Amino acid sequence: xTQPPEIDxxxxxxxxxxxxxxxxxxxxxxxxxxxxxxxxxNACGGRPNMKIPGPCVCPQPCHGWAAAxxxxxxxxxxxxxxxxxxxxxxxxxxxxxxxxxVDLDDPAAVQWxxxxxxxxxxxxxxxxxxxxxxxxxxxxxAVRSGVDIKSLMQxxxxxxxxxxxxxxxxxxxxxxxxxxxxxxRRAPQTLTVPLRGAQGECRHRTPAYLERGIAMAEQRITExxxxxxxxxxxxxxxxxxxxxxxxxLTDAHVARLFTAAQAKGETARHCTDAWINARTALGM
Length: 284
Prior knowledge:
This protein is α+β, with helices and mostly antiparallel strands. The protein is built from 9 helices and 12 strands.
């Protein structure tokens, strides 16, 4: 007798968890389940910014990659039952499993890896391959054409064990995520007094003004009921228009916006593309 899909997904998840691999369900479109109302805007004090897996106090699979767990009681709990029932596949947190996935999205990227990177365990994907290395590093999208890095604070689909022996994470992969700083971009500054000019105080560098702007942007994304992708782009455009030219935005601010967008179902790649497109539109 054929088992319902949720039974197969749960069985796979339990097997992976028993092997020490933190897992979570994904819905259609390879997306994590959105946060429950109590976890919206991280009101519950969850863990989306921590580099370890594990759910917040909410018993549901909230906070995307951070919900990944190896606890069989959580995976089989009533709170996760609905998620498994509607899941399209199983994902895992590579960083929590101690590995890094080099996601090769097309044949050209695969060919580049074969001539550039040391051989390792390889998993066939829909469009290319996952090359899996032993060791962790920060995740990064679009490190080159058709190549993403998924490790800490990221998830990857489980597509089978793959073939080959898992090699140690090489410096060649770590180097992919290192970006040279742009000479035209000023480093964020910590100011002890407000800057003053012809127009008076520079409100862009007033911490309260910046914090209010980021909080409003998070809220705008979180409250979107339709056209989420367009809302994310317009919000990024507004934030960059207000704060992008005076050096007050930091990586932490950008991460908050990306986290809000991913909680609404946007992928990390969509977030990166929307951010780049907004900067391009503003000539930045």
